Amino acid sequence: MLERLSLEQKVRLLTGADFWSTHPEPAIGLRRMVLSDGPAGVRGETFDERDPSLSLPSGTALGATWDRDLARRYGAALGAEARRQHADVVLGPTINLHRAPSGGRHFECLAEDPLLTGELAAAYVAGVQAHGVGATPKHFVANDAETDRFTVDNRIDERTLREVYLAPFEAAIGAGAWLVMSAYNAVNGATMSENPLLRSPLGDEWGFDGVVVSDWTAVRSTEASALAAQDLAMPGPDGPWGAALVAAVRAGRVPEKVVDEKVERLLRLARRVGALPGAPAAPAPPVEDGPALAR
Length: 295
Description:
The protein is mainly α. 33% of the residues lie in helices and 7% in strands.
């Protein structure tokens, strides 16, 4: 498929088509893929009271159960809901940690403990993806407070990074997550859409073969983010890649192989969610009674 695409066509796939979806590519039969906000529900593409979504208890409420099976059922309910809303990807679970009492999004997160968070995240991911819908553990990594979250540079020593902040993501990747979302913040001097952590340990040590999608507008550079293992810049259609990335490849500042690797990961996701011709049909696991599960 890569051989059938021009450089411009390949680069076009790496930025969203609009706020919630990716570009289709008729030359290879690729349809658009829809990403939907989560993590305690599936928003879909429209915010309209005439088209409501199942609202599950917050991540913290799920964390308080200490129940892997319930976390799997929670994820499965979201997977079924995503299919109902024609979404291919759920942007969750949120597996940052409760590190500061004023964290404005802590209700989305599971717990302050990395082991508990990782165990429940792994089950959540398995539940979502049983429906052929991609789960997206977020926000990689150390996005644990709201203060200056777009610009803060969190300085973390190696042991703390491994044993606390990265540990839940390692568990979620071990469960086979198809995407990871890169965060707004920086860690040890590099913003996360340009950070070496996207390659190591995420790619090489943990064997992650999925798509690194940015938090919305988190890709802020052309070459530095392209040279990192950042795959999909959201939202679109505008962004720092596009024509600027094509020019950087033509000038030899970014190898075309780097672009090909990103497109390959995106096409792998497309196959997994059924967005390519000949992709295996999604399984049909039992569908939860959503309102009963929420109650």
